[in-house]
Amino acid sequence: MPHHAPAQASALGPDFEFDQVLAQLVERADHMQRSHHRLRDLIRVNNDLTSNLDLETVLRKIVEIGVELVHAEYGAMGVIADDNTLEQLITVGMDDATIALVGEMPQGKGLLGALIDDPSPVRLAEISDDARSSGFPADHPPMRSFLGVPIRVREQVYGNLYLTDSRNGEFTADDEELAQSLAATAGIAIANARLFEDSLYRENWASALAETARLLIQDDDEEHLGFLMGRVKDLADAALVAIARVSSSGEDLIIDRAVGAGAEEMGAMSFPVDGSASGEAVRTRQPVLIPDTCAQDFGFAQRSELGPAMTIPVAMGSGVGGVLIVARLHGSPVFGVRDLDMGTSFASHVSVSIERAESRMVRQRVALLEERSRIARDLHDHVIQRLYATGLSLQAVAMKLPAEAAEDVTGQIREIDASIAQIRQSIFALNRDSQVTTVNLRARVLEIVDRVETQEATGLRPRVTFLGPVDLMADATLTDDVAAVVTEALANVQRHADAQKVDLVISAAAGQVTVEVTDDGTGPGASPRLSGLANLRARAEGHGGSFELLPASGGGTQMIWSVPA
Fold first, then answer.
1. In 3-state terms, what secondary structure has residue 64?
2. Taking the domain 225-347, which CATH number applies?
3. Fewer beta carbons within 10 Å, N or C terminal of the chain?
């Protein structure tokens, strides 16, 4: 028996070694088969991802494919914002009810933040064993194994792919390698989707720019500013678009027009140029991006519903006359460089539209003045001449009548003369442009008469007469004082005299400028309005002149204010 034992062992040896080799070959074949399947899956993934150019679809597809490839229970894609927090989190594996219970999206702290701070792969058998883990919020599904890999778009980390709870117990090195290969393909797909999205974005802006340019060229008489602002609002996905103009002093910005959220509350709203982001765009003549209007002084009153914004200078004339303000709601994506580029292009169209509108207003004003001049010429050449001829005829008739009748006719002749003076004054009023600031005395007095009549709304219009070269004899200071005297005198007559007729005479003769206001009212008496005339006396004495308040010959009051010119 001892002699036969070695032969038996030798006989068994080759079989045992063959079984070991066969097992190794089977294991290698299985490994090669798995690798082949994974390679085929990667090729399929590459086709799936690179054939789709919608960014939102691509991001979700990356997570879904990652969960499928490494046999994970849950997956997520975290998109990194500029401030190194999670801007977006796309999840796969949790239903809507569970997501609602979990509540607010993670901000990129703990283990999720570890990949943001150090974009290197992380593979854990137990999440809780890692010191960087900060636990899960209430109602969050329990998770054990973890695999996280960064996704790079060119040299920039776009986000991270998170995979949890391997169905095989824990993630292997092969799973990590597969996830990294997926991340590399995902980076290419995201870059392509970004380029496609950017091309669509610029195409939409370019189409809108061409459309508005065509409108501005073809139709010069229509108002296009509202249409332009609406287009900017839609293209920029904004909540509010406004135009603010620089005030005449250059110290404030005044909201000229707004469309969108709260636009009706912003009419004529103003804010200082200094210390505001909108003012910075005016000062530097460069557009300004504002990440959050609540964190940075936007300009107008703080509005909690507004978030990211951009302000773009708008040229008016030879310089910057205002800004185009575009704002989104709080929590919306911030504006980028491409938004600023497109907004700047639209701002030039806004500038052209504003200049067109102002030019159109000037043309309309010129046409109105020309029509007024024609009416004034007709009044002078026809109406006044006929009245003058009628007056002469009545004078001839009066000479043939008895004294009493002649006096009545003479009174009517005086009324005709007064009417001629009034018509001449109306001719002067027709020839002046109410939208242009005037400084001569005659125009200032007429403006005051118009304003007093409108404000008091009594229907009593003073009859105004100018005698002599009043505009030549009154300098700027005297013009201001005469304007104040006329304003005070007419206001007192309107409010206190209970008059039916008021005559205002401004005369310049013998080196004196005199203001006479005569009414047929209740007379001066002891009216409390006398206390309001002290400042008129002071103005007259300041020029070395005089001031009198007398009873009028036919009843009422006569005020005489006279100063040397």
1. helix
2. 3.30.450.40
3. N
Q: Where are the domains of the chain?
A: 31-197, 225-347, 437-565
pTM: 0.48
What is the arithmetic mean of pLDDT over 57-66?
Answer: 83
Going across the sheet that includes 557-564, the strands are: 463-467, 502-509, 512-519, 557-564, 546-551
pLDDT at residue 243 above 80? yes
For residue range 523-558, list pLDDT tens digits in order.
765 544 444 577 788 889 888 999 998 888 878 889
For the chain, the residue count is 565
Q: Do domains 31-197 and 437-565 have the same CATH topology?
A: no
Residue 179 tokens, joined: 């996830």
Share of the chain above pLDDT 70, in %: 76
**Burial class of residue 403, CB neighbours in 10 A (0-12, 13-18, 19+):** exposed
Q: What tens digit of pLDDT does each residue of 111-139 get?
A: 777 777 788 888 988 888 877 777 776 76
Handedness of CA 336, 342, 345, 347 (dihedral sign): negative
> Which fold would CATH assign to domain 437-565?
Heat Shock Protein 90 (3.30.565)
Residue-level pLDDT at 560: 93
| 535 contacts 528 by C-beta, under 8 angstroms | no
Q: Are 515 and 506 in contact (CB under 8 A)?
A: yes
Q: Which residues contact 183 (CB under 8 A, 6 or more apart)?
A: 149, 150, 151, 152, 161
What would the mean pLDDT of 279-305 be, rounded to a whole number? 68
Q: Whose CA is closest to 216, among 382, 388, 105, 349?
A: 349
